[in-house]
Design a protein that fits this description.
105 residues; mainly alpha; two-stranded antiparallel ribbon; 2 helices; rod-shaped; membrane
Length: 105
């Protein structure tokens, strides 16, 4: 997990550095958008942020699905345990008594 955290930090710092470098080295690198002329560095940083947001939504959906599955399996396990206990109470097993040994209680 530490490797993934470091990789995410390095990737983020790389995008920030690349955006800043692009903005400083090519200040006239503008692209026309419906909102006016925007520097490519801002678009790059915005796309990266949007990608992180979408990834966060996917992670949230996966976590939610995992929690739902875990609750469902825990419920099934509780149900099976209660059925086993009911069967044990309904059918007690006889303890085999060996005649030459004393009873242990």
């Amino acid at each position: 997990m530490k490797i993934l955290n470091w990789l995410a930090m390095v990737l983020t710092l790389g995008v920030i550095g690349m955006s800043y470098g692009l903005y400083r080295l090519e200040p006239t690198l503008l692209i026309g958008t419906p909102w006016g002329s925007v520097h490519v560095a801002y678009l790059l940083a915005g796309e990266f942020a949007a990608g992180i947001g979408v990834m966060g939504l996917f992670l949230l959906a996966s976590w939610w699905e995992f929690q739902r599955t875990a609750r469902r399996r825990a419920g099934e396990l509780r149900k099976l345990r209660s059925e086993i206990e009911a069967l044990r109470r309904a059918h007690p097993e006889e303890v085999v008594r060996i005649p030459d040994r004393p009873e242990v209680q």
